[in-house]
Each structure stands twice: as C-alpha cells, then as structure tokens.
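Practice problem 4.
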C-alpha cells in the first residue's frame, strides 16, 4: 500500500478540469476550495461537469478528495453577523458536496477573537451539528492548527474537546497538517511519539487526511508559514518518515507548498516514492 497524493488545485475552470490537471501532475487525489477562499461566493454546480469528474476519478482509482472551506468561514466568531454568514456557508457547502459523495470537507475550526477557547469549542461543535444531516455522504474534517493569534485547534486536546461534542461522530474526523503541528510544538523528529499522542487523545481512527507541508519556522514558533518539501525547518528526512509511516498509508496526502505546476509534479513523484519505500 502507499498513500494517495495530490495538491491544491484551482476550481476556476470547473471540476473536470481539476481532475485532468491532477492526472497531468501524476496525482490521484487533490484539494480545492468550495468557493472563493477570501469571500463567500460560490459558482453554480454544473451537473455534467461534476459527472465527468466522477467518471474520471473512478476510472483512475483516485482516493478521497479533500475540499477546503473558505478562510472567511469562522463558526466561533465574536460578531453575530459573521457567525450567521459562516453557518450558512457550512450548511450550503455540505449540500454542494453531495454532488461528489464519499469525499472530505476540511475546515479550520476558527478563531475565538478574544472569547477564549472554552467558549469557542461548543460554538464550533454546534455549527457542525446543525449543518450535518444523517443522509450526508461527506466526512467533515477539523484541521490541526499552528496556534497563531486566537486559533482554536492548536493542540490535539482542543480538537478532542470539539469532537466530543459532535453528535454524528462517524461523520467527523481530523486532517493533520505537518507545518501546523510543527509550528504548534509537535516535534516530528519523533513521529511515533506524535502519533501515539494523537492516538491517545483523539484516536488514529479519526485521522483521515494529511496536509504535507514543510515550514519556514522552527518547531513551536506558532506562525504557520508553509515551505516547499525539504526546504524548510522540518526537512526531507522528517517528511519522508511521515509519508512512509505504516499507520498513515492509504490516506490522501495534500501538498499546500508554495509551488508552480512543475514543482508540484516533482513533489508528488517524490512523496509517492517515499510512501512506497516504507519498511
């Protein structure tokens, strides 16, 4: 077994175009924003376009896709109008994801903006509980965060506190970002210990996807600045062990590194080689 590997792609030309772009890069998964990442608008779904992508994914044995919520969505905001806006995005995005059933919807838990994590955590859980329905075929993923500013999800315990309040637990998991947890203080030099802690606190069965990114910062900086694989402070050897770890095989790995297409193609091939060489 190996991992599924791809990168974040633009949805500006439609769903099928993303699938073709992924194949050209050697990918068998990819990520995309569900709508304008810095706004709230979303293009109408073209049923034919989505159908073509679904056929392409099936014919080429893609792993789960990892859709990403816009950065403007903050379901634990202090301002009521932002909360209403964010709750609407979450509900609408999960409905739109039903056009691509069986995939993942990843989002940043949010920023408490001075309210404190203790108040924000139940707000996040409430938003997910109100948006998820039993008939949905999408798994919602909470992303591990670096801890900059007032971010919630800066450690495994905060994510566990959110997960404990989710009603449909079988529909919610975690996306682990290597840059974020490194910047948040989890030293990937001892990957086994990090995964052991994740398993103890959250449970490895809840870990569904990986954002594989290097970091411009030293461990514990709490800044969240991505770097190309092997060119940052995490470095090639630590990232190679992530891709090669037996407990992480079979999961979608998404690159969010500062690259062009040529750079992504190179990194996708590199990660695929790392993941197939595990002991």
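Answer key:
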């Amino acid at each position: 077994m190996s991992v599924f590997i791809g990168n974040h792609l633009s949805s500006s030309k439609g769903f099928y175009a993303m699938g073709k772009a992924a194949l050209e890069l050697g990918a068998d998964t990819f990520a995309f924003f569900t709508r304008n990442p810095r706004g709230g608008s979303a293009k109408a779904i073209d049923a034919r376009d989505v159908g073509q992508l679904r056929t392409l994914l099936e014919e080429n044995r893609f792993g789960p896709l990892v859709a990403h919520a816009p950065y403007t969505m903050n379901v634990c905001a202090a301002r009521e109008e932002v909360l209403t806006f964010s709750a609407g995005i979450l509900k609408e995005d999960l409905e739109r994801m039903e056009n691509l059933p069986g995939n993942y919807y990843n989002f940043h838990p949010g920023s408490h903006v001075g309210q404190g994590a203790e108040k924000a955590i139940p707000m996040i859980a409430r938003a997910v509980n109100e948006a998820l329905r039993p008939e949905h075929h999408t798994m919602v993923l909470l992303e591990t965060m670096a801890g900059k500013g007032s971010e919630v999800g800066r450690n495994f315990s905060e994510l566990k506190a959110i997960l404990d309040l989710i009603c449909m637990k079988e529909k919610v998991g975690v996306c682990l970002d290597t840059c974020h947890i490194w910047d948040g203080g989890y030293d990937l030099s001892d990957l086994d210990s990090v995964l052991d802690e994740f398993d103890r606190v959250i449970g490895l069965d809840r870990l569904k996807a990986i954002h594989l990114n290097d970091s411009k910062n030293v461990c514990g900086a709490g800044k969240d600045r991505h770097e190309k694989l092997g060119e940052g402070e995490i470095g090639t050897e630590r990232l190679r062990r992530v891709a090669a770890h037996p407990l992480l095989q079979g999961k979608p790995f998404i690159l969010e590194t500062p690259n062009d297409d040529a750079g992504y193609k190179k990194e996708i091939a590199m990660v695929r080689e790392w993941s197939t060489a595990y002991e």
